[in-house]
Amino acid sequence: MLNFREDATAFRAFIEAHQQQVYNLVLKMVQYVHDAEEITQDVFVDVFRKPDAYRGDAAVSTWLYRIAMNKCIDHLRRQQRKKRHFLSAFFAPGVSNASEEPSHAVHPGMVTEQKEKLAILYKALNQLPANQHTAWVLGELENLSYKEISEVMQLSVSSVESLLFRARRNVKKILSGMYPGE
């Protein structure tokens, strides 16, 4: 349905129309500007390479969200593997000089207090299972309806409702565990 190979202008217009929306979603998922930029670029590279993957059974934005979410989940899984490898190397007997994880720049437009609150929230979100994390970001940060989330995640609406309920409950539990007196 989408054909950009013969029309570079149409592809540029497509990117301009959707890039910020995809980038904002990805940034909310991965939390680092550099990673969000790379993943966003990868999303549009995939769209260019495989425009026939869009079947037209959902809105283009839903299709882009699905691609972006899959890329984010893959990225987060790779990060978890790196973290496990880093920790195992750090705690391995006889290893004295483990390398540090790379530092990342945070979104430049945020105020210090907002950064702190977001850091706390994302710390809690990162403890959720991937499907709860995804549902929470789409529902709470992207303000998608249950139906839209179900299309992006390819789940039933009742499954999305259940995921969001568990995600909210778990975030609340995690945050109360981090700050028991508050």
Automatic annotation (TrEMBL):
Record keywords: Transcription included? Answer: yes
Keyword terms of this UniProt record: DNA-binding, Sigma factor, Transcription, Transcription regulation
Top-level taxon of the source organism:
Bacteria
Q: Any idea which GO molecular function terms this record carries?
A: DNA binding; sigma factor activity
GO biological process terms, alphabetically, are: DNA-templated transcription initiation
> What are the boundaries of the signal sequence?
none
Q: Which residues form the RNA polymerase sigma factor 70 region 4 type domain?
A: 120-169
Kindly name one Pfam family recorded for this protein.
Sigma70_r4_2
InterPro entries registered for this protein in UniProt: RNA_pol_sigma-70-like, RNA_pol_sigma-70_dom, RNA_pol_sigma70_ECF_CS, RNA_pol_sigma70_r2, RNA_pol_sigma70_r4_t2, RNA_pol_sigma_r2, RNA_pol_sigma_r3/r4-like, WH-like_DNA-bd_sf
The RNA polymerase sigma-70 region domain covers 14-81
Family membership noted in the UniProt record: Belongs to the sigma-70 factor family. ECF subfamily.
Question: What PANTHER family does the record point to?
Answer: RNA POLYMERASE ECF-TYPE SIGMA FACTO, RNA POLYMERASE SIGMA FACTOR HI_1459-RELATED
Instruction: Please give the name of this protein.
Output: RNA polymerase sigma factor
